[in-house]
Structure formats: structure tokens, C-alpha cells
Amino acid sequence: MSDTGKIEKVSIVISKGSLEGIYPGLIMANGARAEGMEANLFFTFFGLDAIHRQRHEHIKLATVGNPGLHLATWAGGLPGVSSVMTQYMSHRMEKLDIPSIPEFVEMIADTGAGLYACKASVDLFELAKDDFVDQVKDIITVGEFYDLAAGGQIIFT
Amino acid sequence: MPTAVYAGTPVTVTEEGFYLDPDQWREDMAPEIARDAGIDVLTDRHWQVIMHMRKEFAGKGTGPTVRALGRTSGVSIKELYLLFPKGPAKLAARIAGIPKPRGCI
Fold first, then answer.
1. How many domains does chain B have?
2. Is residue A105 within a helix (H) or strand (E), and if so which, with residue range?
3. Which of B25, B48, B57, B87 is most solvent-facing, going by the fewest CB within 10 Å?
4. Domain-embedded: residue B105
5. pTM for the whole thing?
6. Chain-chain contact of A34 with B86 (C-beta, under 8 angstroms)
7. Are B105 and A99 within 8 A, CB to CB?
């Protein structure tokens, strides 16, 4: 924090691969840049799907094990329910001018935020730099992440 | 509320420096507000965004967010951040003498 008590830098970790797991971190990073803060995004575990070339257009809302949806667990598991709910949610978001995940990722990179993939997860899923969208600056270790995050706040989502 | 003096005229501003009354704003005040906001020189590209802010505010009663600016001002999001590094919508609104835009995206 600065002398004025304002946050000047944030590093946001996105660790989940569901629609509701990815958006909050993207919104927080974009909002941080809009307020003039420095922002970095670190994608780890299933959060890597948000920057995965093939997968980031197909991020789904979790309809099983998501009590916030107020949908019976058995109903959430029926074929197609996740797709339908995702479409419904995407439609609502579009009305509010919230960009799709691929567009949002590109936009956040344009704001000057840094996008990074977690090395341990990349190794675990046997991925490589080419699997990710061009906006990803680098694949970094947890130690390098802490170096990048130095002097700011860390937010884990 | 605090008072600031721009181009020799006192104006009422918020703690963050946004005009309370956009009608108090004049173009010749903008370079001084910009300097207060950390921008030394206003180029034509800055002006394009500033005048767009005024126009949007006049029409809609609220200033656009960065995403909306990127779509409608004729200046890309990348360039907006080069012109206004400490937050394009926020800074351009301040320099344009309109309230801070509220929006999460």
C-alpha cells in the first residue's frame, strides 16, 4: 500500500476452470487496471483453461456441486444442463456488456496487465507455451510469482 | 467539498478531484487538471478522448467505462492506457470535468 493507504498493485491467482471460477479474477484484474493499479494474473491448475487456446471458448458453469444455483444436484448432472445454464448465463452477461472469456483475456492484456501460467500446473497437464493464447507472457514458478507480486496485494480465487 | 482553481477560476471538486458541476468546466482548464492528474501534455489523441467523454456524459448522464471507451471513442484500449496510464476512464473523466464513471467492467 502507498502512503495514502490506497492499493497500488495486485496479483490475482485464478485456480479454477469453471465460468464462475474464472470471471471474478478477470473482473478484479481489469478493474484494478481501470483504477490505475498495477495488475498481474497468475493462472494455475484448472484456471489454465482460461488462457488455453482450444479450451477458453468452452468454459462451462458448474451445475453439479454448486448449491448457489438452487438446482437439485441430480438435475445439475443431467446431460446438457451445464451447457444450457452456461448459455443462459453468457446471454445475461452479454446484455450487461461483460465480454466473453477469450475477449476479456485479450482486453486485460491490452490494459497492460501481465498474464502468467503456473509452471507446476503446466508440467502436470503436460502443456507448453504454444497451448496458450499469445497474450500469456511467460510460464513461471511460484517463486517467480512471489517476486512479481512483491510490494502488492495477492488475491487467490 | 474542496475547491480547486483552474485557468484562474475556482471550481468545486470531490476529494478525488472530479468536478461536482460539469457546467463549471471550460476547455482551457483541461491542461491544468491534466497536470494535476500527472499528464504533462495533452495531445490531439487525449483531446479526442476528453471531448468524447463530454459528449457521452451530455447524452447519457454518465461517463463511459474503459471498455465502452475502447469501443466508441475511436481509440483502442491499448492506446487509452498509453495516453492515460493511471486509468483511462477515470483520468479522462476528471480532465473532462465530469463525475467518475461507475461500472465494474
1. 1
2. helix A101-110
3. B48
4. no
5. 0.94
6. no
7. yes
